[in-house]
Amino acid sequence: MIKKLMRSIREYKRDTILSPVFVTCEVILEVLIPFLMAKLIDNGITPGDMGYTIRMGLVLLVCAAASLGFGALSGLAASRASAGFAKNLRKDMFYHVQHFSFTNIDHFSTSSIVTRLTTDVTNIQNAFMMVIRIAVRAPIMLILSMFMAFQVNAELALVFLYVVPILAIGMYLIMTRAYPIFHRVFETYDKLNNVVGENLHGIRVVKSFVREEKEKQKFGDVSQAIYVDFYKAERLMAYIMPLMQFSIYTCLILLSWFGGKLVITTAMTTGELMTMFSYVIQILMSLMMLAMVTTMIAISKASTERVTELLDEQSDLHNGSNPIMAVADGSIEFQDVSFSYTGKTNKLCLSDVNLSIRSGETIGVIGGTGSSKSTLVQLIPRFYDATCGKVLVGGVDVRDYDVETLRNEVAMVLQKNTLFSGSIKDNLRWGNPNATDEEMQHACHLSRADEFIATFPKGYDTHIEQGGSNVSGGQRQRLCIARALLKKPKILILDDSTSAVDTRTDAMIRQAFLEEIPDTTKIIIAQRVSSVQDADRIIVLDGGRVNAVGTHEELLATNPIYREVYESQMKGDDDNAPAAQ
């Protein structure tokens, strides 16, 4: 787990190494200063030797300045190393997620991935900084201070050996109880991010249904759960400081009692006793720093496991050993295809699908809600792999293609149309980064997006808000269709992507497709029969199975499902028609 995370250090290895080196130099000087101070008191101040006092004072000044310098250098190196490590770790995680299949993404919630990329990485960054600095400083200072204390007076230094085990056992008991709580807190953070994300994404729905109070309650419940867990953990951690103070004061009292007797009997000098006081502070402060590091590591351990879990997730979609780098044409064939999102054959969404679509055909797909229309077309660009059977594009199994090559030849406008913050041009160039203004205008003409773009003061430079919130549903759909057309694909899939467009505009878009891209295979999923009735063939899906395939006229004559849908929609149109005057 740690080895996997350490790969993200990369170009910051130098700073990662230099920080503990500088810390070591700083600690050596800090431990040496009390020893030199004892020499100053015993050999300079007490006998009144001003020359020795000045010389030793200058030496102490140089040591203090050098210690300060090494401390500053260590801090700078640790800051660069930890910030760079966190930057690389976030980058590695985000790039790794980009290669996930839809199955992998379904394994993690969106809010969970966001938490891992933000809060968890920040926790790991803080722990990393402490490890390369404090975790190096504390044990070295503990060992050197203990060594120097025994050099000054071995009998008096035994006081530490009685106090340190008590402190260590107490800290261990606290941390073992706090860690499970911290682990639970970060899982609750996922829920909090999910609640906030859903609320902000669907704020218009929340307000239209006057559900603000319900959303506040949901947020309050999750926030309260985080508060309760953090309170429990922090209550446990609060015992560390009293325990530390108890240890410090116990050592000081014992040193004062026994050290005072030794000074009176001239078995120990005043300077040596002061040195022992300095070392007890250094020893116990190093233990306090170890407690801080232990706390941060306990908090980050849960984050480390969550980040590693994301990095360990392997995409179930990958290229073969010799992937095919070109798609011959837009023909599509389903051979005994069955599919399950869980991979289990007893929970199939699609069953025994056999279809053959010629390149350049216009195919309509219709069926009731839950009939797996979207699932069917998502197998074509290999968003998912078929559980059983084969999906062929251009006569080749989609699993034999280079994934990027295949998806570049399949343009798909999904049910949930997504636009990104930026100009209209920026969004259109997702389809073709090198598209000229003329190509963008032509694509928008085919999708009939040019009609409303012309009404914007800034035209194609109009800014689109995140998610396309400042344009209507129909406008968003037409922009997404134009974006797909700019790919100049061999296969174009419209997954109910004209549902927010009026029937006149829908018909104009379909006519433009027929005239302008006759060689592109077009698959149109729709709820309205009028959107697919001019297709070369129409596929009727029912319960994840192909119920019938035929032209509009053939299905009206032979298929009861299609006829029922057609008649219900025609009756609805008749009922909504204005009465004769």
UniProtKB/TrEMBL annotation:
The chain crosses the membrane at residues 21-41, 53-78, 130-150, 156-174, 236-259, 279-299. It comes from the Bacteria. It is found in: Cell membrane. It holds the Pfam family ABC_membrane. Gene3D superfamilies: ABC transporter type 1, transmembrane domain (1.20.1560.10), P-loop containing nucleotide triphosphate hydrolases (3.40.50.300). Keywords: ATP-binding, Cell membrane, Membrane, Nucleotide-binding, Transmembrane, Transmembrane helix, Transport. This is ABC transporter ATP-binding protein. It comes from Candidatus Avoscillospira avistercoris.
